[in-house]
Amino acid sequence: MHLSRVVHLCLAISLLASFASSAKIADSAERKTPAVAPASFDNPIIKYDTKDPTNEVGDFIYTADPAVMVVDDTVYLYTTHDEQSVDGKDYRMYDYRLWTSTDMVNWQNKGAVLRYSDFKWARGDQKTGNAYAHHVIQQKDPSGKSRYYFYAAVEGGQTDGKFGFSIGVAVSDSPQGPFTDLRGIPMILLEDTARDKDHSWRNIDPAVFIDDDGKAYLYWGNKQLWWGELEADLIHLKGESYTLDAAGNMQNRDTSKVKIHTVDTLPNFEEGPYLSKHNGIYYLVYAAGFPESLAYATSTSATGPWQYQGIIMEPLPNTTTIHPAMFDFNGNTYLAYHSADLPGGGNYRRSVCVDRVYFNADGTIKPIVRTFKK
Question: What is the pLDDT of residues 177-209, one digit of tens each?
Fold first, then answer.
């Protein structure tokens, strides 16, 4: 055979092999990343403390209280971390974990991104760190640089040293941290809500929503829903005044001009408020009653008034709590929540799940259909 023909034949074979290899890689990638949004999930999606927490078998990890932030093409799922023993009778929670996904099916374990002890005023011991539910948001500064704000409910920080939960905020230049407490003191203290309730765990479950006009609101509470507006820096309540000590920490906090509002129109409000906006409607999803079901209300404003719409998820087996996070990603709406479906699960050993949210023509939410791997 002529030498040039041999060269051409070899080149053609090489190109065919390269094309086949590329097609194989593309086919593999296509199989890994769904072409359409998933309608069912391998719940709980967080099972193992491995790089792939859904599929790579390893030690079970128990997670709860999901909060979701979507940035560009990535879902950032932040959870609390249940470390109680099987026979334990109380929450044992020290840190917050991060899990990410670009397709809602394949997740990556980013580890612990914040501990209760990162708030120097927080208290904990070998029994518990009391790192309760949280919320994380992104905001760009005037230069266009993104900053990330982590709002967390932890025990400690009361002005009189009493036992009680506070809400703090820590800030980072990365969604993976490290997060720094720029206040040096809590944002919400027992004294801020003492006129309405007197139980020491009333200031839990913070959720922050930034409206289209740039105004930011903090929602929180147990047995009572409170809300207040934040300053543009997202680390102070609107109207809050203070001085700074030599280390830059706040002192002489004055909230006499801060307006903290109550919402008293939500049937059986227990805790876990989560605000989001979909197709022009504001949705307030929350845990109702005890054992908790999942209820919601709608409004034309982030500040209400709220119209109660009903229950979308009934209480789940083996756990008295539910904590919602409703969010949009790639044109679809999802609900993250926790169950107790992992082996050894229970009230203090929970597991984060996710399912699709579907709306009726009038904007009301259809009952959530829980899904599992077949």
Answer: 999 999 999 999 999 999 999 999 999 999 999
Bridge-based pairing state of the strands 74-82 and 146-155: unpaired
Select from 37, 100, 106, 35 the least CA-distant residue to 70. 100
Q: Which two tokens stand for residue 128?
A: 């518990």
Residues 6 or more apart in contact with residue 298 via CB below 8 angstroms: 281, 282, 283, 284, 306, 307, 309, 363, 364
Inter-residue contact 134 to 150 (CB < 8 Å): yes
For residue 325, the SS3 value is strand
Structure tokens at 368: 């959530």
Of 192, 127, 136, the closest CA to residue 159 belongs to 192
| N-term to C-term CA, the chain | 57
Which of 320, 319, 312, 295 has its CA nearest to residue 355?
312
Cα distance between residue 17 and residue 19, in whole Å? 5
Q: What is the pLDDT of residues 261-315, one digit of tens each?
A: 999 999 999 999 999 999 999 999 999 999 999 999 999 999 999 999 999 999 9
Q: 10 Å Cβ neighbour count for 254?
A: 11
User: Tell me: the pLDDT tens digits for 60-97?
Assistant: 999 999 999 999 999 999 999 999 999 999 999 999 99
* Residue 374, pLDDT score: 75
Q: Looking at residues 313-341, what average pLDDT do you find?
A: 98
pLDDT at residue 126, as a whole number: 87
Q: Which of 166, 82, 73 is nearest to 119 (CA)?
A: 166
- Which two tokens mark 335? 């609900």
Distances (CA, A) of 249 to 108, 166, 183, 370: 35, 17, 6, 46
Beta strands in 3-145 (DSSP E): 62-71, 74-82, 95-101, 107-115, 134-140
* Dihedral (CA of 208, 77, 268, 220) sign: negative
Longest distance between any two alpha carbons in the chain, whole Å: 96
CB 346 within 8 A of CB 320: no
200 touches 162 (CB < 8 A): yes
Beta bridge partners of 161: none
Q: What pLDDT is stored for residue 35 in this prediction?
A: 55
